[in-house]
């Protein structure tokens, strides 16, 4: 579970075997394939990107970047 600036929150489940993550955001479930990242782990699909590094995550959607923290 991640809590973000501005009140946004989401659930993220990682599946290392399939190199994908499932994101629960705004009542929708979205499968995000893993993309190569020099630092951290990044998942992206259809205008949504999640970049995870330790306890922190950055959510990008609709051209906006939101900083989040694992809860």
**In what range is the share of β-strand residues?**
over 45%
The count of DSSP E runs of length 2 or more, i.e. the number of strands, is: 8
Helix content: under 10%
User: What is the averaged pLDDT score?
Assistant: 93
Tell me about the biggest sheet? 8 strands, antiparallel, barrel
Topology order in helix (H) and strand (E) letters: EEEEEEEE
Please give the count of helices: 0
Rg over CA atoms, rounded to whole Å, is 11 Å
Question: What is the topological layout?
Answer:
Elements: E1 2-4, E2 9-15, E3 20-25, E4 28-35, E5 41-45, E6 48-53, E7 56-61, E8 64-70
Antiparallel strand pairs: 1-2, 1-8, 2-3, 3-4, 4-5, 5-6, 6-7, 7-8
Report on this model:
- It is a single chain.
- The relative contact order is 0.26.
- The protein has strands at about 1-5, 10-15, 20-25, 30-35, 40-45, 50-55, 55-60, 65-70.
- The termini are close together.
- The model has no long low-confidence stretch (mean pLDDT about 95).
- It has an eight-stranded antiparallel barrel.
- It has about 70 residues and is mostly beta strands.
- The protein is globular.
Task: Please outline what is shown here.
By secondary structure, this protein is an all-beta fold. The chain has strands at residues 2-4, 9-15, 20-25, 28-35, 41-45, 48-53, 56-61, 64-70.
List keywords for this structure.
eight-stranded antiparallel beta barrel, mainly beta, 71 residues, 0% helix
